[in-house]
What does this fold into?
Amino acid sequence: MSKPPWEGMGGYTNIDSETLPMINEETPTFMGVPYARGAEELQGVDVAIIGAPYVAGARGKYAGVDKTEWLAAPKRVRQQSARYPSGYIQELDVDIFEKLRVVDMGDADIAPECNLDPTAENILKAQGAVEELVNRALEAGAIPIVVGQNSPCSSYAIAKPIAERSVGKVGMISTDTHWDSRPLDYLTGDERIAGSGNWKSKTFSSFSNFSIPNLVEIGERGMLEEAAMVRNYTKQGAHFYPMWKVRTELGIGGLCEELRHAYEGTDDVYVHFDMDILGGAGPAPGDILGELAEPMGMTDYEIIRLAHEIGKRGLTGMSFICIPPGSMVTYRLIVYIIAFLIAGVALSRGN
It folds into this structure.
């Protein structure tokens, strides 16, 4: 790498690449926070960033886009985060790093064969590698934020440790274009696998403390799902907010008020952002998502605002999947989402 991708901004930001904490020669830590893996380094940490470079499928592509593009997301998000020389958010007049201790735990140790040959056993191995880091973060009292691309490594692998550690009910806030609630993983046909098409149904069937009446499901749209599946969720008490309802009735402010359903009577809340929710409404063309793009998506402001409001209300852990590949501004959007969420946490805790 002849020149770091975070350089070359005409001197607008003052980035010292020589002192920037690095995970490897191409990957800085998220926004230059300390790199921490061990229990002692995690003591007193409030938020821990974790990378989960895993993509389903075995034919070199996922949703019609080259797998290498998807796999680069944890690295690309961190590279773009290096643009920002401090944690000061001018819109909120708050410096997140003055308020909270944030670290980067690096990437989960996902073996290459898990992406090259996604058998059920290899998928479970990859899932376990993510769970290990998530459990370390939770054990330290930190909020794990996992930046990945596919299930189970960036969904079920976060939901599972939260459910196993919770002493009560667990709520879920999920943004998505798809319900991810097929009865079985389509890739392996193995009932142990919480894959990209079934991780949510697998979560609710595996952990009784994940409460469907505390599910806030945001963003699904169009003609993608079977009526029986959607109606089954709402009949059991799920709170469903398709983008049509957000735009015609609630607005983003009203949607944020509806987040309360995830917190009523729960001890923990898991937050899952599937970034295919953007479609073409985000800062980059929807076509970069390949087969995952759908019209009437959520805007960048709406998803940032939602994250900030979640931070103010609190959360146990968070994950990202399906980050649109190959767009620098979309990788920066992930940085904004995380930073504004952390700011919400900081503001809720005061001084």
